[in-house]
Design brief:
Number of helices: 4
Largest sheet: 4 strands, antiparallel
Structural class: alpha+beta
Order of helices and strands: EHHEEEHEHEE
CATH superfamily: Gcn5-related N-acetyltransferase (GNAT)
Strand content: 25-35%
CATH topology: Aminopeptidase
CATH class: Alpha Beta
Strand order of the largest sheet: 1-2-3-4
Distance between the termini: 24 Å
Radius of gyration: 14 Å
CATH architecture: 3-Layer(aba) Sandwich
């Protein structure tokens, strides 16, 4: 089941955010994610966020700001089960295009987005991590 983020969901969502960022982005210092935790926890409820509920637990979420996908996060134990695709399809329902940034070294995410119709449109350097990232876009 997919539903909008509720105030009480924030700690569960942030645990997934922190754990999956650290595991997925091993090329970025763990402290980067820990240092940004409180900032993200504060701004996340201001974005449009949908959570995926499985057996009464939040196992994934997507954050979007207008047509920009801030991120899709699925708990490691529930990846490759269609949850990320379901969350992405939820935000595609009422939009004609989407945009996002993904680190070049995050091969699995790039593959996921390509499989879901995104194409790489540019390459930049993320100023805060000094890592190369792709901008990817999807159009209906």
């Amino acid at each position: 089941m997919i539903r909008k983020l509720k105030k009480d969901d924030i700690n569960d969502v942030m645990e997934i955010w922190k754990n999956e960022n650290i595991k997925t982005h091993q090329f970025i210092q763990k402290e980067y994610w820990e240092n940004n935790y409180n900032y993200v926890k504060e701004i996340l409820p201001k974005a449009e966020v949908y959570v995926y509920i499985l057996e009464e637990n939040i196992v994934g979420f997507i954050g979007i700001d207008e047509n920009y996908v801030e991120g899709i996060f699925v708990d490691r134990n529930n990846q490759s089960k269609g949850i990320g695709t379901s969350l992405l399809n939820k935000v595609k329902e009422n939009r004609n295009n989407l945009k996002l940034n993904v680190y070049k070294k995050n091969k699995s995410a790039i593959s996921f987005y390509k499989k879901n119709g995104f194409i790489i449109t540019s390459e930049n350097i993320d100023n805060s991590t000094k890592e190369i990232e792709y901008t990817m876009t999807w159009n209906r």
